[in-house]
Amino acid sequence: MRTAPGKIPSALLVSLSCITFAASPLAQRPPNLNGPPEWIEARPPIHILPFVTSSPYGYSPAKMRHAYGFDQITGNGAGQTIGIVDAYGSSSIQTDLNHFCATFGLPATTVRIYYPQGVPGHNNGWALETSLDVEWAHAIAPGARIVLVVAKSASLNDLLNAVDYAVAVGAKQVSMSWGGSEFWSEGYYDYHFNRSGVTFLASSGDGGAGVMWPAVSPYVVGVGGTHLVLDAYGNVTSETAWSESGGGVSTYESRPAYQNTWQGASNRGVPDVSYDADPYTGVPVYMSNYYGSTGWFTVGGTSIGAPQWAALFALVNSARTYSISSADVGLYSLGKTNYSWDYRDTTYGNNGSYVARPYYDYVTGLGSPRANHLIPQLRTY
Known about the structure:
Layout (H helix, E strand, L loop, with lengths): L13 E3 L29 E8 L7 H7 L13 E7 L5 H12 L7 E3 L9 H17 L4 E7 L4 H13 L4 E4 L3 E2 L17 E5 L8 E2 L6 E11 L5 E6 L6 E7 L12 E4 L2 E4 L6 E8 L2 E8 L4 H13 L9 H16 E2 L23 E2 L1 H9 L2
Parallel strand pairs: 3-5, 3-6, 4-5, 6-8, 8-10, 10-14
Antiparallel strand pairs: 1-2, 2-16, 7-9, 10-11, 12-13, 15-16, 17-18
Helix pairs in contact: 2-3, 3-5, 5-7, 6-7
């Protein structure tokens, strides 16, 4: 396996990035108490290198665990439940996960799958997203229980109902690798993420500068993207801002108190943190029947970060008496006292409108985790 995937012409890159929606007259209507506007449909922010291989290509779980310091942490997430929420799901997820685990020497586990709105049809993009989320959450926290809650469609209403269901079945960390454009009444629906003892994580998007909901909710940890270069042993050579990392300032959400002194805008900034996302430094995902192909896919996008940050919080909560509440408050608070200890600052690169700077910025947030330091800090926070 190569340590740094080679450059492929950008014209060949297959993208399932989140779509930015234009303003609509529907956005002027009062909030629909039955759910967000129907004209907004979520998309998974995932990028795929345009080839399928018989063996994995990209950074292995062992290399990713070493790059971010997970291999220096005791515990494996036992006793915790990670909720993966996706639309459409994947009928082959269990067999695909079994193959992923066997290939990388990970302990086998059974994914508990729920279809609270009925079993939907197959969708190739969402099926690959499902494989990515489940396989890589398990890679980082192999002792945690994984529940996959499948929404019948990509409407925000169906996905939010699935989020509520994940909490109801015991998930204390919920990964949401999807999002849609902001809408003026979004704050009304933030209550879905304001749950004591539950941490919600969402991808910030793959379209460069711009803001997606729910990553921009003040009760969600928004995860941006980086370009991570490792040597043959998994040591970090460099980590820079990924040019397509979603980020910016919300149009509708006010700046939460935890961002005071970190950023000067009067409204909420996103992302909060970051993780490897560039498909050229991506990770392998195994999937059956992706447009008829079965094998290994090299995947990037901010979708990589949300499930692995969810796994990080599973490792945190497995060593706490009570699962952490208000995760963003903790992340920013620790940044004030132990910044260089807990985060790898990203100071090079941009996402089109915003430039990576020391400490907080609208491309990579606080930065990437130094998990070997951040997790112990959060365990006692």
